[in-house]
Specification:
The chain contains 18 helices and eight strands. With 388 residues, it is α/β, with parallel strands linked by helices. Helix 7 packs across helix 17. About 19% of the residues have low confidence.
């Protein structure tokens, strides 16, 4: 009772001090949560572990400091997680920055050598149609192999997510181990996902995805992927666009600079091709060429099918070439090799090779589907006589 009477005045004094200073109560509450007991009387203090010289931020700060400490801890965890997870975009930016720094360090010698050797910018061409089944994948495979035979480095990009068929036409379906999705996620390198052709080492193929949904790929992913392929020195990048004009079409044409619209002499295919040509122009792709597939000259002579000139006039697009109907296309597809890879080219193979030469700028004339093997003397004779 004597000790209680001596302790009561100090207790009342300390309680009044705590009411006048609210932050002392908060500091006391945080101190208790930290494992310490702050007492108001020296006689009732528990034995606590030895403290460091620097006071804890929970002990000496006001109500706003604990939230700031938690924010700093959360930011530290986020930074550590971003460092541990590899990201394709970050590596790509660092690689391009290192390349630019190295080119700038080389100085005028690099500029002189580049000016002498010419421009090395890759041409990105998207093959599209709007309507399915007109021959986009077949045209992409044959045009790409024709360019590879001419000595160019070509990369075929299958952007048809979930319905990829480009590997079947090239006979590379058993070699697809990684796709562009694994490259973007950081699971593998880009060199591991690029599949080289069996015959031509300067021709490779890349599938965007195996069985993922098309909405997992964005326009930024496609642009970043094409830029990475361009850094590897390819001359042509041909994108096999999916059918339709939905998200897959928008993502496929995002990195493209040129376009090849494939259509057939049918009203439905021509209407879809006209719609696609307008969308390409709306997305700032003005270099558009027309490839008319599955042309039958016998039906054109009987006026049962529109001619190539009629299709071109309806669409208003420059003509790249006309591919005749050929049963050898089905045979070559089932064998897993493009039509132009055969030793003896059929009429469709000659037409694809001519279209590829026109696309790279090595040939100006079109192949006559009725007689593609005209001699130069006969061509000159038909020119002066007014023959078609």
């Amino acid at each position: 009772f004597v000790h209680l009477n001596s302790f009561m005045p100090n207790l009342v004094k300390n309680m009044n001090c705590a009411r006048s200073q609210p932050h002392v109560q908060v500091a006391t509450h945080h101190a208790r949560r930290s494992g310490y007991t702050t007492c108001l009387g020296a006689r009732f203090q528990k034995h606590a572990p030895a403290r460091s010289a620097a006071p804890s931020p929970m002990m000496t700060t006001t109500t706003g400091i604990p939230s700031q400490a938690r924010a700093r801890a959360a930011s530290a965890n986020t930074h550590s997680n971003s460092n541990t997870a590899p990201h394709f975009a970050q590596r790509h930016r660092r690689r391009r920055a290192a390349t630019r720094t190295q080119a700038a360090a080389e100085g005028e010698d690099t500029d002189t050598s580049n000016s002498d050797s010419g421009s090395t910018t890759s041409r990105v061409i998207v093959v599209t149609s709007g309507k399915g089944g007109v021959g986009k994948t077949t045209s992409s495979a044959n045009l790409g192999m024709c360019m590879a035979r001419l000595g160019y480095r070509v990369c075929l990009l299958d952007a048809d997510i979930g319905l990829r068929n480009l590997d079947l036409l090239l006979g590379l379906e058993n070699r697809v181990m990684y796709t562009a999705m694994e490259v973007l996620e950081g699971t593998c390198r880009l060199d591991q996902a690029l599949i080289r052709d069996k015959k031509y080492r300067n021709l490779c193929m890349l599938s965007v995805s195996k069985n993922r949904q098309r909405y997992n790929v964005t326009r930024q992913n496609m642009e970043l992927l094409v830029e990475s392929i361009q850094d590897r020195g390819y001359d042509f990048i041909i994108i096999d666009c999916p059918a339709g004009i939905d998200v897959g079409f928008i993502n496929a044409i995002a990195p493209a600079q040129e376009a090849v619209v494939v259509t057939t002499p049918e009203i439905t295919a021509i209407r879809d091709a006209d719609r696609v040509a307008g969308l390409l122009e709306a997305n700032s792709i003005y270099n558009v060429k027309l490839l008319v597939n599955r042309v039958r000259p016998d039906m054109i002579k009987r006026n049962d099918m529109m001619s190539v000139r009629d299709v071109q006039e309806m669409l208003g697009v420059p003509l790249l070439g006309a591919i005749p109907e050929d049963p050898e296309v089905i045979v070559s597809t089932n064998r897993g090799e493009p039509l132009v890879a055969r030793q003896k080219l059929s009429l469709s193979g000659v037409a694809y090779e001519n279209a590829a030469r026109r696309l790279v700028g090595q040939q100006d004339y079109l192949v006559d589907l009725s007689d593609p093997y005209k001699s130069p003397i006969r061509r000159i004779k038909d020119f002066f006589s007014g023959g078609d």
